[in-house]
Every structure is written in structure tokens, then in C-alpha cells.
Amino acid sequence: MTIAATPTIVESPAAPAVAWQGLRSVRLLDSLSDQKLADLATRCHWHRLEAGQVLHGPYLDQRLYMLSSGSLSVSSYGVNGRELIIGMITAGRFFGPMAPLECGSQLSVEVQAVEPSLVASLSKEELEALIVSDVQVVWAVIEHLVELSSKLAKRVVNMGTLSVRGRLQAQLLEQAEQVGVEGDQALLSPAPRQNDLARMLGTSREEVAREMSRLTRLGLLRREGRNLRICHVDGLRVLLEETR
């Protein structure tokens, strides 16, 4: 498990004044005017993270967290210490518990910055006031939960029914769809790290490296500096269907 420094919590008045525009990308807050958004920013706690730092609190407290910039990974650890990346959080997403802590056991996870990141968090009371004041916020939460449930269900099925080869192909296709496919190609920038892919798929870096090399030899992948190009997205889909 990575041991990281405690994140800096920025609570000075100047920080929200500069950073509130970053909240504009958070889907939960789409319906808020600039004035309401700026006012909300002053009531947030701001957490500034460097790459590798752990964000303490999410899924343990009752605060809602919103990623203004950067990216985060969400990991869990087995009793043997093996890490599994449950998911990635990109800028504009919100996360945290959606139910009272007493309703069941807490989820043991670690949220870590993949790159320099800025996170805003709201107390339970502030979140409840926000929901009461704007019905569009409620719909945003519902849409988020539906999307999250669909992604988790798909991942559980893949983990239970696909080989490592198939899970890697499915993960590359998912990332291709996230960045956008043009002319049967997709550019992943920067290229996903093999260690991260291995932790997402519940396997070793060596297995990921072997399969990435095979896909490269087949002409489906190509490294371009720090980026990875999926040269034939449809071809990758065909391989995945053959694996199922």
C-alpha cells in the first residue's frame, strides 16, 4: 500500500475565489448560476493533492467530494495486501457516501491522486440544503447513481466471465469510448500505465505487458511517445467477442 503525505486542505478565502470556476464542470452543479456557484465555493473545504497523495475522508465520512481538476484512483486491498483499482475519478465527477453510515458496514477504500488535483467537499448539511433548493441537483444525483450502477455491473460481469486477455480488451475499449473514437481509432493520452491496468484487472503487470505486446504485433495498438493509439477499435471489439 502506498504511504503518502496528508493532503493540504485549503480553507483560505482566496482559494475558493480563484477555484470556484472549476466547479462549473461538476455535473451535479450544472443548474447553479455563477453567483450561486461562487457562494457554494466559499462553503466548501478545498483539498489540494500532489500526485501520489491520499485523500482521507471519502467513503468514511458523510461529506460529498467534487473533483475540480486532476484525476483520482479508488482502490481497495485484499487481506494479502494486493491492490485492486475499483475505478478512476475524472475532473467534474462527484463521489462519497450516498447513504447514512449506520445503514451498513463502511467501504474500505483508498482515494489517491493520479496527478495534481483539486477537490472540494461539502458537509452533509450543505448538501441537503443544496438538494432542497434545486430539484435539478436531485436528478443529477439519480443519473450519477444509474450510470455508476451500470458501470459496476458491467465490471463485475467482466471480472467473473472474462480471462485477463478479455478484461484488458474490454478496459481498452472502455477508455477508447471515453476519449472518443474517430475513424475507427482512439488516442489515449497519456497512455495507461501497465501497473495501473494490472491493478484494475486484478492481475500482474507481466500478464498485461504480454497481451499489450500481442495486440501491438496484431496492429491494433501503437505507442506514440507518451500516448497509446488504438489503431482499429472495431478489430479490438471482434477480439473481445471471440474471447467471450
UniProtKB/TrEMBL annotation:
PROSITE patterns: CNMP_BINDING_3, HTH_CRP_2
UniProt keyword list: DNA-binding, Transcription, Transcription regulation
InterPro entries cross-referenced by the UniProt entry: cNMP-bd_dom, cNMP-bd_dom_sf, Env_Response_Regulators, HTH_CRP, RmlC-like_jellyroll, WH_DNA-bd_sf
Superkingdom, natural source: Bacteria
Start and end residues of each Cyclic nucleotide-binding domain: 64-148
Domain (HTH crp-type) ranges: 162-234
Entry annotated with the keyword tRNA processing: no
One Pfam short name: HTH_Crp_2
UniProt protein name: Crp/Fnr family transcriptional regulator
Naturally occurring in which organism (per UniProt): Comamonas resistens
